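It would be a great kindness if you could assist me with a short task in structural biology. The matter concerns a single protein, recorded as an amino acid sequence and a row of backbone structure tokens. Kindly check, if you would, that the fold set down in the tokens agrees with what the sequence suggests. Thank you for your consideration; the sequence and its tokens are set out here:
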Amino acid sequence: MPRFPAMAPAVAALGGSIYSSLAERLAAHPGETYPLHVGDTWLDPPVGAHMEDLKSAQNPGLHRYAPPEGLPRLVDAVVARQRARVGVDTQRDHVLIAAGATGALGAMVGATIAPGEEVLCLAPYWPLIAGIVRQYHGVPVPVPLFGAAHSADEAVAIVAAHRGPRAAAIYLNTPNNPTGELLPRTWLEALVAWAAREGLWIFADEVYEDYVYRGEHVYCRALAPERTLAAHSFSKAYGMAGNRCGYVVGPPAVIAGARKIAAHTFYSTPTASQVAAARVLEGPGDAWLADARARYQAAGDAAAARLGLPPPAGGTFLFFDVAAHLGDDGLPGLLARCADHGLLVAPGPSFGPYATHIRVCFTAAPPAVVERGVDLLARIFTAGPRAA
């Protein structure tokens, strides 16, 4: 047990800088900068859902606490969306509005994982999930799957090989951050059936559900509603990352537990953020999504073409191996050379055992800026480790 001045072991196990330790270099760079390491968008939210659009006179209680489970107006809009999209019976008690999908995932992990229990994290994975599991004294187990499996049977075999006696849940993210890949329906059906046989929870991170360019997004909850906890995000869907509003949908008994976790961490999601989210679902959201999806696909396709990569199937990222472009100083050396030119990309080890990979976000800045940043990265590759 730690004593002063030591910290808790779970905190010591968390990384400080998730994506890059070179942000200070970017801030000091004298020329144009290309912050392609962070998963965000250059687009503003839909008209009518900006913070300045919200007036206290039209929204009584705007500056007061919202109910811990979420504003009824927003919960009802989420219920309607889940029924329409997922095709599964959904009521208010299936939903928790959370402080972003991060808060949603924290609540679901806290409600289901006991100390020492393992969460099988299909990799590469969203970096914060490993820290969230550790925060609740669980054990994240990386399961390299994307790019490693080539069939549903292979996918199940890979996951099964990583299952230990204390496994309690499987985490999957599709469309995937960072690869942009979508898990095929047959793979998801096989993985869900395996999880059911093994008695595991399913943590479905579906925050990029609205950004599918090639293929089909399959909702896990439609396959196993009794054991699936699904996280969704207004940050990724509608350019509202600063609002910190998302939600989790799952079995009522577990959502009741997740509400307890949420109440003891962030208590309730910001009221103004929930009003803005409700406005999006009630009005301009679908048209905004259609426009954003086209813009994102164009940006992703252009970035992939410049780097000689396949176009992304979904999401807002490219993830690829740069081993051929590394010198004796390895990946840190490449990241430093990029930073010296005003460019930041995310290091592969943040996403699992990917020591020679990087991730590029093609929506983190306006398309022209992203284009120049990606072109700079391609030129750094061509110049080589010493000449760059």
About this structure: Residues 9-45+286-382 form a domain with the Aspartate Aminotransferase, domain 1 fold (CATH 3.90.1150.10).
